[in-house]
Design goal:
This protein has 795 residues and is α+β, with helices and mostly antiparallel strands. The chain contains 33 helices and 21 strands. Strands 1, 2, 3, 4, 5 and 6 form a 6-stranded mixed β-sheet that branches. Strands 13-15-14-16 form a 4-stranded mixed β-sheet.
């Protein structure tokens, strides 16, 4: 219930909350507290005492504020002492009334979400108008409140912010969205970046409460966060938001990798902290001797940034985590360079590791001096040197403009007025005008969110940022899609160069285009272009202009693959099986499947494998599957290790029937099994979850009851999969554990992907299946291993 002021001095019922302030009410005499001066003082003090435990006081102003708003108001006043509490109260009242009766997935009242979003924005230091818009940001989308009503009650500024966030909420990143919605969202965001700041706070609270959503929605939201919203926060310089978004998304998408890094960090924290303290104390002493007033601290390590460095730099965890990071905060820009001189005079700098982001700030207003020195024991130490004002900008980015604009005593670094300009946001307006399709604009957005490390000039002197290693073709597509399609040559710094040559910082690039009809990109360009935008545009051109060629090529490739697998080509190509498979693979028709094969989006061999699996339900195929467990005379040896004759399984009620373990699912004691009588009179034993079990059950007259009867002579083939963060010696450590447990390895396969994740598969024979749990536990204790499990083939 909203607190109200009591107009009467009569005793107040305990169920009525009353706002009581430390100041006298209008018309009330101000006293020194003695009852003799004011006969009514005793009564008023008694009422205050009764309600002190239940009523929130507002010491600055006599404004009725709901108790639930007090924490938000207290945080907001730290950066905005002149806050209009009445406006916040009205915004909360309106939002609470609109959302009344609505619940979140967690079961909490829905109003807790906009209140939490407003609190996050208050912590960032955003202005009161932004907080009111945050309280109302879901009302237009989820309730009957209109934008016109918001404008009438709260003004056009709040209305524009709510409208922009509503449009932004409708954008489904990575999927087709209505073009006009995207256009309006970009226009609103470019005109007022607070729209995006509210959206980032909204996503941050949703990520904190993501556990209440279904797993598939958790994954989709986390992927959007990691691929789009966290980079957007980085673009706006809001590193505090970016780091938390990344860690929350990382923990959701890759929980086992996240847990492994958390464990590794915890193990090494004590020794690293000791080393860090030693370095900090020495640097502080050096700066005191140089008469420089500075604050020296260690830089926090974020789990996702550690993981990314392992991937991008190809480094081991120990190398990255032990790389000590130190931040030095000083009073002035002159002190930054003086600090750099003192540190380089006392410590050995690492050549090529110095960067001056003060003279040349990053796109998101970030300013700092970066250098790396050789610390004690020869370990490298990274240093960031910046002023306190630069640090505030580095933490809050564009939000610092609102956080400190009313505080004359707290400066912020704003190189060239970038927080007012944010040229990157203005550039988005140009892109959305050029984009013909929503996907095209989102591709451009994703591309630009990547790290831009090479800056080149157009002939008119405009600057374009491109990924490192970009070529004139990347430049052409960055200018415009049609310029890229019709590019035939390039001149860099006045000299003709090949299209595959990489561009350097400061190059002036001029593109030559062809006006001939039918001019278009070359497939060879896909081998050297670096930007996702250029790669996407080239693929789209071929998909649109040469679809028929792709369909023919795909049909030919599929026919060859089917012929190699001895499948009936004519019957399958003209039947319903291929159409059903195309739909299962999310293609509209068979032609779309052919085109996907022709464009190398999917391999012909994988389609054939899926087709064979689909045909497993036919009677002939079932017979072939059942008999495949017994190699025919003269047949080539199977890649699957042979089973022992003594299977350790018996048919219930019969003692002299030969049984064999099916190779398609390799059951072991403890698995639920079924028996199938083959044409040769033997019984093939399958797991009940085997992919072939459905087809086998369609012939119940050939099914028999079987049970495990292991004995000393029985052995079983087991496959396990080990997932770990890649490092040197990992395979050796795993095989050593297997060898120590006297496991006979039959085959091993190891793959490592770009994410520095090593996936190893081992197939071996075991006499005691129950020994597998002990073995898996031992493997999980290996450094870097975050999962080890049995692979149940054929499930």
């Amino acid at each position: 219930m909203t607190p109200v002021e009591n107009e009467h001095p009569d005793p107040v019922p305990l169920d009525v909350p009353v706002l009581v302030t430390g100041a006298a009410a209008p018309g009330e005499p101000v006293t020194d507290g003695s009852d003799a001066d004011d006969p009514g003082a005793h009564h008023r003090r008694r009422v205050r005492d009764r309600l002190a435990r239940r009523v929130v006081t507002s010491p600055r102003r006599q404004v009725p504020v709901a108790p639930v708003l007090e924490p938000l108001l207290a945080i907001h006043r730290r950066s905005h002492p002149k806050v209009d509490a009445r406006l916040l109260q009205r915004g909360y009242d309106r939002a609470e009334a609109c959302h009344r009766g609505q619940l979140r997935k967690s079961g909490d009242p829905y109003i807790t979400h906009p209140l939490a979003v407003a609190t996050i924005l208050a912590e960032l230091g955003m202005d009161t108008t932004t907080l009111v818009a945050a309280l109302l940001h879901d009302t237009v989308e989820d309730t009957g409140l209109s934008l016109a009503e918001i404008a009438d009650e709260f003004g056009t500024e709040v209305e524009h912010l709510v409208d922009g966030v509503t449009k932004l909420d409708k954008v489904k990143f990575g999927a087709a969205a209505e073009a006009e919605t995207i256009r309006k969202m970009v226009v609103a965001m470019a005109r007022d970046p607070r729209v995006l700041v509210i959206k980032l706070a909204d996503r941050l609270h949703n990520m904190r409460t993501l556990r209440f959503l279904p797993p598939e929605k958790q994954e989709r939201k986390a992927r959007e966060t990691l691929e789009v919203l966290a980079p957007l926060a980085h673009r706006l310089g809001m590193n505090t938001v970016k780091w938390e978004l990344e860690d929350l998304a990382f923990a959701t998408l890759y929980p086992k990798r996240y847990d492994e890094i958390v464990r590794l960090v915890a193990e090494r924290a004590p020794s690293r902290d000791t080393y860090l303290g030693e370095v900090i104390n020495r640097i502080r002493a050096d700066l005191r001797e140089g008469s420089i007033k500075a604050e020296v601290t260690g830089r926090p390590k974020h789990y996702y940034s550690i993981y990314q460095k392992m991937i991008v730099r190809g480094r081991e965890f120990t190398d990255i985590y032990d790389l000590v990071g130190i931040r030095v905060l000083v009073e002035s820009e002159r002190d930054c360079y003086a600090t750099l001189g003192v540190i380089h005079a006392n410590w050995q700098p690492v050549p090529g590791r110095f960067k001056d982001y003060i003279a040349m700030p990053k796109f998101n207003m970030y300013q700092s001096l970066h250098t790396t020195i050789i610390g004690p024991a020869g370990k490298p130490v990274e240093l960031q040197i910046r002023t306190h004002a630069m640090h505030r900008t580095a933490e809050y980015g564009i939000a610092a403009h609102w956080r400190y604009k009313e505080r004359k005593d707290v400066p912020i670094a704003d190189p060239g007025g970038m927080s007012e300009e944010m040229g990157w946001l203005r550039q988005l307006l140009d892109w959305q005008r050029e984009a013909q399709e929503p996907e095209e604009f989102l591709d451009a957005l994703r591309y630009d969110l990547g790290a831009s490390e090479v800056y080149v000039f157009t002939p008119k002197g405009d600057v374009l940022g491109l990924p490192s290693g970009s070529t004139p073709v990347d430049f052409a597509y960055a200018v415009h899609t049609e310029v890229g399609h019709r590019c035939v040559g390039a001149r860099v710094n006045g000299k003709l160069i090949a299209l595959e040559n990489a561009l350097d910082n400061g190059d002036t690039v001029e593109i030559f285009t062809s006006k001939a009809e039918g001019a278009g990109p070359s497939r060879d360009w896909l081998e050297f272009v670096k930007s996702p935008r250029a790669r996407t545009k080239i693929r789209q051109w071929f998909a649109r202009e040469r679809r028929e060629d792709a369909i023919d090529a795909g049909k030919t490739a599929l026919s060859k693959a089917m012929r190699k697998s001895s499948l009936p080509i004519q019957r399958l190509l003209g039947g319903d099986q291929l159409l059903t498979l195309a739909h299962d693979m999310h293609y509209a028709d068979i032609s779309a499947l052919y085109a996907a094969i022709g464009e190398s989006h999917v391999s012909a061999q994988s389609v054939v494998q899926k087709l064979v699996s689909q045909l497993g339900g036919s009677e002939g195929a079932v017979e072939d599957i059942a008999e495949a467990t017994v190699p025919s005379p003269g047949a080539p040896p199977s890649s699957t290790p042979p089973q022992t004759v003594d299977s350790g399984v018996r048919v219930k009620g019969v003692s002299d029937v030969h049984t064999k373990l099916a190779r398609c699912c390799t059951p072991v004691p403890g698995d639920e099994i079924l028996g199938f009588v083959t044409r040769g009179g033997a019984v093939s034993v399958h797991r009940t979850t085997c992919t072939n079990a459905v087809a086998l059950r369609q012939q119940p007259d050939r099914l028999v009851d079987v049970e495990w009867a292991p004995n000393a002579g029985a052995t079983y083939v087991v496959s396990i999969q080990v997932e770990a963060l890649d490092r040197h010696g990992l395979l050796s450590d795993v095989t050593r554990v297997l060898s120590d447990d006297r496991v006979s390895i039959l085959s091993a396969n190891v793959t490592t992907n770009r994410d520095r994740v090593a996936v190893s598969r081992f197939t071996f024979e075991m006499a005691e299946a129950k020994h597998l749990k002990h073995l898996l536990r031992a493997i999980k204790n290996i450094q870097g291993v975050y999962d080890a499990q049995r692979v149940q083939t054929g499930s």
